Amino acid sequence: MHPFEIVGVIGKRRDPQVIPTLRQLIEVLRAHGRRIRLDELTLPGLELPADVERLPRHELVRCDLVIVVGGDGTLLSAARDLAPAGVPLLGINQGRVGFMVDVQPGEMQEALAAIFAGDYLREQRLLLQTRLIRDQGRGAARLAVNDVVIRNQAAIRMLEFETWLDGEFISQHRADGFIVASPTGSTAYALSGGGPVVHPGLDALTLVPICPHTLSDRPIVVSSRQTVRITLRGDPDTVAMYTCDGQTAETLRAGESFEVREADFRLTLVHPKNYSYFNILRNKLHWGRGPAAGGELRNNIK
Fold first, then answer.
1. What average pLDDT is seen over the chain?
2. pTM of the entire structure?
3. If 88 and its partner were Cys, which of 42, 62, 71, 268 is the partner (CB 3.0–4.6 Å)?
4. CATH H superfamily, domain 6-118
5. Domain 127-264: assigned CATH number
6. Contact 48/54 with Cβ under 8 angstroms?
7. Distance, CA of 74 to CA of 58 (rounded, Å)
């Protein structure tokens, strides 16, 4: 039996620019004899071969591999839905940044041929699990791949909140918000907030204040095996937004909290054999580019 016999496909929603890549991908998968299942919300008007079946997202958990065509945002959404079932994901980059969707459309045919021949890398990424804490108790668990964030709804006012780690008080803060990021999310919102780049092989959480009032309020890195709790303080009318990966949002009020810890399972990513995390960083963050002779050559080393 070949690896990845049943392949799901998820494309960036409402984006006709992904159509040529989706059509090419479907033809490549058919040429390799794979059974194809397309997410039903991916460009519903797209004409498909008769042997390609459209399914609701939750039924893609029966796939051996799901290929995501889009940007990191599309992959984040797919990961939250499919990681609990252990479905591995492969990203085809049709976005702008692409830290996680690392296969370029022009490399897709060669990369898939190698992957279907068993020549690929499998990587496990830490996921975040978070819960709201209100008067009625703890809410349902939610997942985040990159980060869990508290932000002020009123842009001209700072938030006041407390941070705790496994019940031990860390500090009080006045800031525009706070980010709890996974290693994967360390190159996302947390990076723009001044947080460090954390290698995805580490079991760590990064705690990053957003525009803190006190300059000494700096990012810190803690073990992902510990539980972070953020409690919103302030006047009774204080309202903040609590978001997961910037894609799901809920209201948080003064006196309410949320907890973040690592999830009990990991996200599985599939990469071509030549995948390099540091090559992604060099290209996306423009490391090593400068006036020095040979800088461009060094930057393009694979």
1. 92
2. 0.91
3. 268
4. Probable inorganic polyphosphate/atp-NAD kinase; domain 1 (3.40.50.10330)
5. 2.60.200.30
6. yes
7. 15
